[in-house]
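Each lists chain and fold; for instance:
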Amino acid sequence: MLLFALGFFMAGFVTRGLVDDDSGGASPAVAAPGSQTGQTTVQGQPTAPAQARVPATADDDIFLGPVDAPVTIIEFSDFQCPFCKRFRDQTLDPILQTYEGKVRFVYRDFPISSIHEWAQKAAEAGECADEQGKFWEYHDLIFANQTALNQQLEAEGLNGVVGTFKSYASQLGLDTTAFNDCLDSGKFAQEVQGDYNDGVAAGVTGTPAFYINGQELIGAQPLAAFQAAIDAALQQAGG
């Protein structure tokens, strides 16, 4: 009976890569769409045919690195996604340090609201922080507190989590009146939805999803997988 209940519980997850191999025993490679590598997926979302997909673009979204870098990495991310946190914690900084001046890293929102209740408001909060020049600080703070925010959601609901988002604005020295008005009004809800729609058009079905000079890389893969893809893009770009 216990085994049956456990199996039913696990079947309820809609994440890919909950059991994945980061041992590095196999040669790293860019994963094909649909692979089981460290990604939270959208339940029931149809996959666009490859020929119908629109290339992912940076749009007007926030980025790190030089605008004219030979390699552009576009990430579609969800603040509540554990695999997105893994990428932030383990991989992003080494990429930026190793390829300083050669990579532009673009962050785009892809909140999977069907399973991540606070992801949409977190994305909007990030946009509100960006309006005051503090996106990356806010980005890091949310990911650092992802577990605590999930616990707060269980205890206090979404309103409690939004209250914490507002406290982060104060912690970062933002104009809290402007930030709170921005978040409460949903000022950037359509901006976030636009990112999501662009991701769907590009073939994104889960987070994190990356496009490295247009080449798709799926999930929070080991650093070596990103290095292989970036090195190939640099070679192709003559960098």
